[in-house]
């Protein structure tokens, strides 16, 4: 018996669509209804019959699939007429021709497309500093119903003393009277249905910026040009970073990003008496120009802004999220520095400096990162910038390997562009090591930076960057030792990598901040392709040093790389990590 007791079919309409041949009226219309049902499992099954009717409970016409049963569980009725209501049922057909009872009845309406609300795309978070203007851009896609026209409206959902310049445009500028956190809302309507999307704008107080010219030291004394800059709202330090002194340059290229949580800021100081003219442009991942412009920096002043602020921001909306590099050239030698600023998941402001590639100075030697971390909440992102007008290629080598197989990660960088490569961040336990940029034969090395991120319970607490460097036989490193573990305590760790195939001995000497030897020395042995990380007070010969102490460690070895890791205990008791650049002897020597 092949009846209802053995087979029950559930029928549903997948789509009842109107197919429009072209976009201009009048047009030819061809409606279709697509049905789907659950399969019937039986060796007796020959297929299915599909029935259509103008009445819900009356199915007297032959099946619309003809004399041959449908073998699939999906059927499209291409004979439906425009602007019509149909009812459908399905039966299972046995090899003997016997049919099961009918499925449930499903209605379908043809030639009457359904209007859907617009879909809004908007950058959901921005950072601006007073008195800058926030540029808000909303784009919307729609099905063209009912009229094909979309209207926009920007309103303030949270915050006071906000001026929206063009509240009924898709792109508008917004001005703020005071610092704080604001929510701007855009509503897009097609005349029938509406959608909304919110943009969080974090407005920071105006920061006084300037620059300091360091005169050359007399005699043979070396010099370390470092500045520790901290952001401390409400008396609590949210972020700190060491900035190195900048040699005069006239061309530069940086890794630039404009994402939901991170954006790029540039500061250009003109130490000359005359104004410096700046030409700049943004490129995407293919090296194509997204935007170009000009600016001017008066003599003895500094220009600092995020790339979405004037004078760098485009006057018309562009896809800033596709930006990969920012390149500038100047009419006079200037000093420049770059930061990536992050508003973390807790709305803390975190910042980290990035290196600048001098496009007039290109080498082919491998570059090394003395430290990376992955797993246990840690993740590393390596940014590679192509300072040339030709494609770059090579590989990234990690010691130890990220996947324990020894496999390298290849890279390719379009001319004038950049790439970012992230470690998996998957292991439960953290692992650390060092990494190296190895260009292909005959190819120059890209500029490299490695950003360390540490997330705890979904919140990014550490956001800092280590620049790739050439190996050297001597480094000088600024160190601190303050407190005994209470909030405000500081310890400086030394991380030294040996990128050679043989072990090496490293000598450590402690100096005062004015370069006087203290007679305290230590020795480390680092295995081939190995790395050593040790805090200053863990070096046996230096454990008796009195605190507080600020000074310099001289690091001597054979073709090594080094970086400092400054660990500060915050007011909440957590540890904040800040890399300290180690200067090679050639950099710290007096000119």
Describe the structure.
Strands 32, 33, 34, 35, 36, 37, 38 and 39 form an eight-stranded antiparallel sheet that branches. Strands 17, 18, 19, 20, 21, 22 and 23 form a seven-stranded antiparallel sheet that branches. The longest helix is centred in the C-terminal third of the chain and has 4 residues, at 585-588. The chain has one helix spanning 585-588, and strands at residues 11-20, 29-37, 45-53, 74-77, 85-94, 106-109, 119-122, 125-129, 134-141, 151-158, 162-164, 171-176, 180-189, 194-204, 226-231, 239-244, 249-255, 262-270, 276-283, 289-297, 301-306, 325-343, 349-354, 367-374, 378-385, 392-399, 409-413, 418-422, 431-439, 447-456, 459-467, 472-482, 490-497, 504-512, 517-526, 531-535, 549-569, 575-581, 583-584. By secondary structure, it is mostly beta strands. The protein is elongated, with a radius of gyration of 33 Å. Helices cover 1% and strands 53% of the residues. The protein has five domains: 11-109, Sandwich (Immunoglobulin-like); 119-204, Immunoglobulin-like, CATH 2.60.40.1080; 223-360, TM1070-like (Hypothetical Protein Tm1070, Chain: A), CATH 2.60.290.11; 362-468, TM1070-like (Hypothetical Protein Tm1070, Chain: A); 471-591, Hypothetical Protein Tm1070, Chain: A (Sandwich). The model is unreliable at 1-7 and 12-30 (pLDDT under 50). The protein is built from one helix and 39 strands. The protein starts with 10 loop residues before the first strand and ends with a helix.
